[in-house]
Amino acid sequence: MITGPQIREARVRLGWDSRTLAQRAKIRLASLIRAEGSSGEPAISTAEAAAIERTLGDAGAGIAPARRPKP
């Protein structure tokens, strides 16, 4: 599943604000803000995460692999 930092980084690369991504993904702005605020997998529904990932992908923002903390 896409992570909060991945969402934020892809959105910024597109030059979109949070409201734009939420509208294009057809999810609530509060859900997007909660998702972006998480350090790992966001506390949003699977459908919302899929909508965000699909919207970012359709717009051409490649999703970078999740960064794993160093041991």
Strand content: under 5%
Would you identify the regions where 5 or more consecutive residues have pLDDT less than 50?
A: none
What is the third-level CATH name, the topology? 434 Repressor (Amino-terminal Domain)
Question: What's the CATH C level?
Answer: Mainly Alpha
Number of domains: 1
What is the total tally of β strands?
0
What is the CA-atom radius of gyration, in angstroms? 11 Å
Number of helices: 4
SSE inventory with pairings:
Layout: H1 4-14, H2 18-25, H3 29-37, H4 46-58
Which key features would you list for this structure?
434 Repressor (Amino-terminal Domain), 71 residues, DNA binding, 4 helices, 0% strand, mainly alpha, XRE family transcriptional regulator, single chain, Lambda_DNA-bd_dom_sf
Structure description:
This protein has helices at residues 4-14, 18-25, 29-37, 46-58. By secondary structure, the protein is mostly helical. The chain has one domain (4-58): 434 Repressor (Amino-terminal Domain). Helix 1 (4-14) packs across helix 3 (29-37) and helix 2 packs across helix 3 (29-37). The mean pLDDT is 89. The protein is 58% helix and 0% strand. The relative contact order is 0.25.
